Amino acid sequence: MTIHDLRTRHGDASDGSADQVGGRLSRVDGPAKITGAAKYAVEQQLEGLAHAVLVESTVPAGKVRAIDTAAAEGAPGVLLVLTPDTIPPLKTASDWFGTPPPDVPYCPLARDIAFSGQHVAAVVAESFEQAVAAAALVKVSYDEAPAVADLSDPKAGDGIAIDMMTKEWGEAEAAFAAAPVRICAAYNTPREYQAPMEPHGLIAAWQGDRLTVWEPSQWLDGMARTYAEWFAIPFENVRLVSPYIGGGFGSKALALSHGAVAASAAKMLGRPVRLVMSRPQTFTGYGGRAATRQTVTLGADRDGKIQSIVHRGVNETSMGGMWVEPLGSVTSVMYATPNFSSKQNVVRVNSVVPGAMRAPGENPSAFGIESAIDELAYEVGIDPLEIRLRNYAEQDPHARKAWSTRQLREAFVAGAEAFGWARRSPAPRSMRDGNQLIGWGVAAGTYPVRRAYGEALVRILADGTVEVESSSIDMGQGTYTILAQTAAETLGVPADNVVVKLGDSRFARAGVTGGSRLAGIMTGAVHKAAGAALDHLVGLAISDPRSPFHALQANTLVVAGGRVSSPRGDGPEVSIAELLASVGADQIEAKGDTMPANSTAEDRYKAYTTIATPLTHTDGDYSRHSWCAHFIEVRVDEDFGTVRVSRVVSALDSGRLYNPKLAESQWKGGIIMGIGQALLEEGIVDRRHGRIVNNNLADYLVPTNADIPDIQTISVGIPDPHSSALGGKGVGELAIVGVAPAIANAVFHATGKRVRDLPITLEKLI
Amino acid sequence: MTSPTTIPIHLTINGHDHSLEVEPRVTLLDALRDRLDLTGTKKGCDQGQCGACTVHVDGERVLACLTLAAQVEGRSITTIEGLAEADGTLHAVQAAFLEQDAFQCGYCTPGQIMSAVACIREGHAGSDDEIREYMAGNLCRCGAYPHIVAAVRQAALEVQS
Q: How many CB atoms lie within 10 A of CB A472?
């Protein structure tokens, strides 16, 4: 059920514009979420549901020698034990670029082990408890092989050069050698985990050769394609349903092997099967953010003007898969420099293939460059804010194109003013409150405007209510709400009269929800579809002989507050429902999409089921990015080295905000995840067993309420017509970028100690 | 479904009596979600670390994933589904969560709200710092914490007035 049938009064009662794009309408899916009525994917209650539990490898490398399933098969309630030998082979699916796959079988349970925690077997039973108990009875023996535990493993080596990541202009090495001021340092970030509160899982059910999958998903159409290819059934035979998603942060965009296991089990049993990862399994069932290493070298004049940036980066990937975390992404656009060189390697380790986590690339990239420029500021004795303004990039230094909009200078000014930056005492260790050393740090962030295509269907029903349908999703960003506002504004109806339906692959198509692209794409698609529906409605009203407006001979009509009238003020005023009744129309339906007009069906399929056809952010005359500046105060206990973030002011340029209330929430969420990254989060690898030892929410520390101060966000954006139809840029990924370096810079200001390895834990300060 | 390994239990949830035949190892959380279609109570970690499964037992906040269903027989259980009035009028905490936008994905939200109701009842909503401390057992990965604090502060004032 995707309809939020609990109607309440939304928004500020005094704010008549809440229904419009840009208004502070409260979440339309909110009432369902605060009453427990919102059914998440795996909460569907299906007749005959069976329960699957995964068994994982306990070694990081080698081969499965044997799997003894006898005890599990004899356990109460067990229906099926799946191993690499008993699960039917599937077809290999194409990757997310749509690259045709090799014609080899795909087995979602592994014989060859490439990381600890790999799925090797699964048990399906009548109840969850029976499946858990029986899974513990599966005995797996291995021929273990040597493993590369992590990036610091002496066996890891230098890795593979990724030539497409190389960016160079000028003579970076020579200019660095000639520069009067030189800074060179290494910055490291550990494995980090998305850790959405809702664990990954699904229910799979077959009806003949048609598969329905209820699964939290950031990309229904892409995941449906993968399931279809695995099981060699038509794309149209797969239905993905994902009305609410309990957080994703990049981790729920792809169909993964556990999904193949559940769907295989459901097919074999002829029953719906539910499989949900345990919390520890979520640390190895899919990839978090790759561990990274960067060296940032800055050559500058004595007045702090950068002459050269030389940047080298490394990220880990898995033995069999390839993940490139683009470490030079912020390095190459943030500051003006005549000479630049960035190169990147990836190193194979025995880990699950890393994946996307909030601002992949930009996030660790900013930790490097935004720490390094802070080091340069102290080296030349210039305020850290001033040095950023001195090196301000007036155009994209890499693409050599004008910025579409860049309100970063405004962000620095507004943030500094609200924070009180002018009162900062420049020297490290010069501000304190009793036993607490106080530090103030600043850092900037950016994220490119990723653009792609989307479709929406808008339907005006006989009673005047409006339905919007799209296979895009809402994992908390506010899609339901901003699409209701877009339809309401375009059609001239109250937002309360709009029902938005998302999260079903049978609806009008959408590509991946990631890279902060969804809002810009989908508001554009809904605006277009709603505009077409309005044209149809007005056309009927003017031309249909049964219409009360027919005699007016008007060229157009006005729809406002759900009522239709003549702009000249003559003639009748009727509700949409009355108008539809008068002309005998049951409903009006219009589809809108943002694809080029001559697109073929094949183009559309590719656009929505792969990431192969995005519009680049430097397409045409402009370079399009969102921007932000974070001002952060930390308090460091001088004796114990404990760091607390006590104040955050962030000024952000996300272009036009479709709903400031919800955008502020997303920004704060990004900032809070950045505080976790700076101070708490680190996947710890046991070198002996190549295993993540803190694979749970008590040992992998995410921020709690008690870790987070009040946070002030300031919008400095202006509508950006080059970035999206309605003028917005990106919101969700942006705000985490730059938080960790702002905190590291504040810690240096407080203590005089430069921490270049995240997280900044107390042993690094005492 | 009866078997030698199941036991009959009687639970009072949101004022309604329920009879179940379950294995003794079934948690209150799985009983609610898998046997009674009360899926508002969420499973985030199943090991007492995240707070998403917070419910009230005799008015006190309890983690349903660390509580066996059989342990709470005869006691009064309240879940998120039982918090609003019978006519749909929201509890002050629910209304404040909506107004303050104290959630995004919504998955931790029922647990946050149940914790917040108890936090106020315990007298632990006296200041923002106290709210932060007594709400620290409920993780929110979307990062709604400042808005959760604002919502609890607002609801505490309404409940007390």
A: 31
